[in-house]
Amino acid sequence: MKYFSILALFVWSAVSSLAQIPDNFQWLPNGTGYCDFENGSIVETQLPDKATKTIVTSTQLIPLGATKPLLVRSYTLSEKGDKVLIYTNSKRVWRYDTRGDYWLVDLTSNKLSQLGKDRPESTMMFAKLSPDGAKVAYVSEHNIYVEDLKSGGSKALTTDGTDRMINGTFDWAYEEEFGCFDGFRWSPDSKAIAYWQLDATKIRNFLMINTTDSIYSYTVPVEYPKVGETPSPYRIGVVDIATVTTNWMKIPGDPQNTYVPRMEWAGNSQELVIQQLTRKQNESTLMYLTVADGKAVTMYNESDKAWVDVKGRWSDGPEGWDWLNNGKEFLWVSEKDGWRHTYRVSRDGKKETLITKGDFDMIRPVLIDEKNNAYYFMASPGNATQTYLYRTSLDGKSDAVRLSPTEQSGSHSYDMAPGATFARHSFSNASTFPITEWITVANNTPLDPNASVKKALESPQRSGPTVEFFKLTTVDGVEMDAWMVKPTNFDPTKKYPILFTVYGEPASSTVRDSYGTGRNRLYVGNMADDGYIYASVDNRGTPSPKGAAWRKAIYRNIGTINIRDLAMGAKAMFEKYSFIDTSRVAVHGWSGGGSSTLNLLFQFPDMFQTGISVAAVGNQLTYDNIYQERYMGIPQENREDFVTGSPVTHAKNLRGNLLYIHGTGDDNVHYQNAEMLVNELIKHNKQFQFMPYPNRSHSIREGEGTNRHLTTLFTKFLKENCPPGGR
Fold first, then answer.
1. Does the pTM of the predicted model rise above 0.90?
2. Is pLDDT of 622 > 90?
3. Is 411 in a helix, a strand, or coil?
């Protein structure tokens, strides 16, 4: 249900779109510099002097018999620095381009060779060099393969993979809702690979229909577990590279009623560590698995009345376990005291120390510097719309100290080098385009004062209207953050139409002091110049750093508590600002925001006269099991909550102007939501405007002219039904 607009791209700038595909910017292991793909070559740059040397030239990337170099999507350097794995010719699986081709550059022999030559084009996924650099493993068509780089020989480590028996990667739901893509791990000694196997054979197909790419229509099946359906059963196996035999781990619990979103080697080659969640995701169990006999030992439990979040909610992805003290301890993030905090936990789980102390949320981790007893993380105790860098001690004996400059008010992100030597620091706020600088972490100073955030802010790069942030207290006593952009040449004696942008669900917040806030990419022209107020409020249930109670108030209340908060926030604005024309109130949103738009229009028809909803979940019983059950429970137990919160239930109340938009090829929020909603509106003789986009996905970005058509449609409908200008 997650749709991230240009706003969210900057709000969550530290969270990559796909952590399992390495970024082309990569720190050197010793922290003295970085590598990046520049002008067709892979270049190493040393800091602070910016001295460069080319690691792989564009000429070295030209295959034998070809005239052009490979188009590099990503690359990985071996630990010894003598080999470079190249990812190219990538294709989308669902949201992301996780399948493609792989080549290897041997820097010793200056040889470029293709891996997986016997595999079909663009079917290889997540290729990884073994720790000793002698082999490479990858997934292709749901089987795991390994190649010996010296001999060139390859073999299949699994052979039972089919379109539904999935080895080494994941099904649609795990990918979308847990951020799980790469499903195998090399052992530290390079002798084995641990991997997930998901059995999706019992997951029913949802059939999308393609009616435009041939004269006869055809179905496009997606294995998609709807809410209320049991998950794909999982197994964790460890395959011995030499013998090609898999030993299956003996994990307790029903694999059709639990999940394993995290699995790693436990700091050695004899044990694995996993996180298992109950189906409702309200109980988390950490276990060690002994590779030799598969036995499981539970060592850490936590539970919550709502849900237990997974690592992908605050980090780049679910992979990686943060070991300390030579594997005797690890770091763990929990909300058990009401705030998202980081704890230092003994290997047996019996002792833990809180290291991010205070009544605030750790927004996301940045770096562990064990050598200097330091933990770097993002937080913003005083303003939930902003983000700053903090440091505390790993032993939990000191309080957190803010490192981001006090005069730089807004949203910061830091990509920090190993050892906390240098960092790439980015800053923006709602009125300032993102600025990036290189800094020395120890004294938090720019390497080049003339190319620093401070210097740039002396001549702010402003690109749009001024965004005003403020707080509102609703009639229910809920304090909410909000922002507003007033019309150009604003006259307080006049009344102006207002357009609210909403999301409202646990996947994203719309009220952030970062670049993108206050800008509407769907509007053709300038809303402020045309005489609109543009605004948003932050309801309970969003992922804002306001504590677990704020975020989890939405449990079993999607479509109710968040909608009332949004409506009461709007009402508080109407009462506070007399220049808002309450006869011209519009709202728009996409995905979860589309659902909120519909519910506001249907549940509060006296307040909202116009709505533009895109790709909405009209009926909560149509969405996937992991997301919907995490936040709403299981419909067999509390179906009434799903019904009450669904827009289709309230469609009969429509009195205003509705434009509904959906892509017929949406594999995320299925097009059936549109037709269910349309049927209900027809039933009650409700007139509305409807725009289906043939074969477009959830982002509605495919096809020539699509974006222009969509933005033109949005703008025309808004102007006709919520006319701009002061009166």
1. yes
2. yes
3. strand
